[in-house]
Amino acid sequence: MTNSLPKISIITPSYNQGKFIEQTIQSVLTQNYPNLEYIVMDGGSTDNTVDILKKYERKLKWFSEKDKGQSDAINKGLRMATGAIVTWLNSDDYYLPGTLQKVSNYYAEHADAFWVTGDYEIVDESGKQIHSFVRIYKKFLRSLPFRNTLYIANYINQPSTFWKRSLLKKTGFVNENYHLCMDYDLWLRIYKNNPLHTIFSPLSAFRIHSDSKGKSQYVKQFNEEKEVAEKNGGSKVDLTLHAIHSYLVTKVYNAIK
């Protein structure tokens, strides 16, 4: 049975996330997926992260050394990965029960799928669900049939997205020049030649807390998003709509802070 299931490789980049990383690790290991490769790339944390990693070292591979940031850590892990399907899961996010089996089943039933994304929950520091309207809005955007929508707004949730490792030979790895929108850049590169498949159920919990990039650096993130969209072939109309969309979303974020 194990050999019939595709190997899934999950990379967790980490730095001083001892507060959350154990929940992240447990959410992966308790999937009980029998063909799993789990790699944690820690950037030399000075908190209790390494102690936590040691607790689970028989069930995962981990490395703790200085790196050049999140994108560098992700790439290091992806280069080590041997699974047919790969992804990364940040050290403050976590999977919901049954996620890896759902992903595996989807690939088994859709031989033409090179990448797939799913729905998600947004949670706060304590794991309480928040901002449900954002999730609903992005779900609506994913349902639109217009191909250029992804140039206008990044509606793909990173921890709920998985792709075939073979795509990396065609699209390349994560661009290490980006520190906020490295996922968006990768999505656009993949999207040019590979239709996005969707699982219509929540696969992960995306956490927003005081130290998360999505909470503290969203203005910089939107500026980087526009640069990414332009670099990857967004038209003038797309970029104008992207700027308008970012402006409106910023107004909403400021209103709910």
Automatic annotation (TrEMBL):
<feature type="domain" description="Glycosyltransferase 2-like">
    <location>
        <begin position="9"/>
        <end position="148"/>
    </location>
</feature>
<dbReference type="Pfam" id="PF00535">
    <property type="entry name" value="Glycos_transf_2"/>
</dbReference>
<protein>
    <recommendedName>
        <fullName>Glycosyltransferase 2-like domain-containing protein</fullName>
    </recommendedName>
</protein>
<dbReference type="InterPro" id="IPR001173">
    <property type="entry name" value="Glyco_trans_2-like"/>
</dbReference>
<dbReference type="InterPro" id="IPR029044">
    <property type="entry name" value="Nucleotide-diphossugar_trans"/>
</dbReference>
